[in-house]
Amino acid sequence: GAGVSQTPSNKVTEKGKYVELRCDPISGHTALYWYRQSLGQGPEFLIYFQGTGAADDSGLPNDRFFAVRPEGSVSTLKIQRTERGDSAVYLCASSVPESGANVLTFGAGSRLTVL
Amino acid sequence: QKEVEQNSGPLSVPEGAIASLNCTYSDRGSQSFFWYRQYSGKSPELIMSIYSNGDKEDGRFTAQLNKASQYVSLLIRDSQPSDSATYLCAVNSGGYQKVTFGTGTKLQVIP
Of B38, B99, B100, which to mutate for an interface test with A (greatest number of A Cβ within 10 Å)? Predict the structure, then answer.
């Protein structure tokens, strides 16, 4: 597609529920990033994929968070047993690191609210 | 110590003035440096990238990099009310392509 697409744009769920957030990167972009942004804060790195593999998942806060990118394109961020502190905007970005200039293009984000 | 540090502001400047935004980073091995602009309720968008020491100019924007001091700055000349946004400093650090963001500086340009 022309840009990075994220769905859903808004998700309201109850504490303890399971949530999936989807990211469809720009066609041909090999790298895909997930960030979490809380109000008044900068994007917080969660995980980075190069192709199908997670090259760096050091930002995932705990084992309730998991992300996959099975075919090297679309990625899904999965959050189990959601907590109120998980409420944030989840941003996805893609890039072509091989170009030498790792410029990230962001999607519009998925706003997660945990009641 | 945070990996990328910025003053959260807000930084208020009058229309037409120069806005100066600063950023320091902790990883000496960092190779690439970026400034992103984020309007309220929107996603970050790239405005400048810089990879070597010195200045890089693009229109009203100038990015400055000093790797010895681990310091990056962004100057906005002839500031306009439309420049009012949060400016995020980002650093590509380590052997991987991890990109780390600062907390952002909120800029307010007063007409």
Answer: B99
Please return the burial class of A35, using the count of CB atoms within 10 Å of its CB with bins 0-12, 13-18 and 19+. Answer: buried
pLDDT tens readout for residues B24-63? 999 988 889 999 999 999 999 999 999 999 999 999 999 9
Q: What residue in B sits closest to A107 (Cα-Cα)?
A: B43
Which of A102, A105, A111 is the best mutation test for B, with the most CBs of B within 10 A?
A102
Tens digits of per-residue pLDDT, A17-60?
999 999 999 999 999 999 999 999 999 999 999 989 888 999 99
Alpha carbon distance B24, B66 (integer Å): 10
Residue B2's closest CA among B103, B109, B108, B87? B103
Q: C-alpha distances in angstroms, A74 versus A63, A78, B41? A: 21, 13, 24
Q: Is A96 exposed, middle or buried (0-12, 13-18, 19+ CB in 10 A)?
A: middle
Chain B positions with Cβ closer than 8 Å to A: 4, 6, 8, 32, 34, 36, 42-46, 49, 51, 88, 90, 92, 96-104
| DSSP reduced 3-state for A86 | helix
Nearest residue to B65 (alpha-carbon basis) of B97, B33, B87: B33
